[in-house]
Amino acid sequence: MSTEGSGRGSVSLQETVQSSRCLSVGREAGNRHPVAFRVRAMHMGRSIAMCRRQDFSRMTQRTAMLDKHLRDQGTWSQRIGRGDFAGRPALFLDRDGVIVEEVNYLHRISDVRVIRGVAEAIAAANALDIAVVVVTNQAGVGRGYFDWAQFAEVQQYILDELAETGARVDLVLACAYHAEGLGELRVDAHGWRKPQPGMLEEARASLGVKLENSYIVGDTVSDMQAGFHAGLPGGALVLTGHGARDRDLHAEALDDLMREGFALEIVEEPAAAMTGWLTRAAGKRSS
Ligand SMILES: [Mg+2]
Predict the structure, then answer these.
(1) Based on the domain organization, do 141 and 25 belong to the same domain?
(2) Does some domain include residue 4?
(3) Domains in the chain, number
(4) Based on the domain organization, do 48 and 168 belong to the same domain?
(5) What digits encode the pLDDT tens for the residues 7-41?
(6) How far is the CA of 101 from the centre of ligand 1 (A)?
């Protein structure tokens, strides 16, 4: 018995059953949510051999990528390109609510929406030889809502979307440790988790950027505090994502930062915050 028709792309019942076995092989190998693309492949009527080959290839690539970028189970460091940023400033960008719209625990590429103007602003930083560094807390991994493989898939999609506008991120740093994390990811106030400055210090260690000339754009008070703790002279709290909430909810903490000498700006849009600082940085460079 089979469900096949004569058209291209039809799948026999036997193939479907075999493909289902293929799916469970993928799951046994440690992929928690590999179903979507496998189902897609199944509906495209690919052969089981091809399915297995592609699954194996994807799993191998994915495992290699995780091996390459995970420093330990809770911290991710992904260098892109070979730009020399020794002694240069860095533009630190939070990801969710700054580069892409905040959707709470982003883990599906279908939910990725790059915020207007951000890619162009990143490209402007690239043109000025300013390192662009993504620093993102990923409590969703820590809490077990999604895994590093899903983070990697979303992250790559964002990088590809930016690249379409000629924008390049030079370093992606992420921290999954959280006070309510699962197992080994349960770490309170890990050095990399913002408001701690660990990710920014890692950027200095791996790229040689000058933190005292750098800047951070974020949508939470903890982004600004991480910048302050790392010795950045200033940063911008943007009102996208959680920004408008944090501006009101943590007004006192933001005032404290300013009292301590951190040049905090509150700017409506991430792109405006980025280009405002880039214009000043470019002015300093030429003067
Ligand atoms: Mg954010």
Answers:
(1) no
(2) no
(3) 2
(4) no
(5) 333 434 344 334 433 333 334 344 444 454 455 45
(6) 9
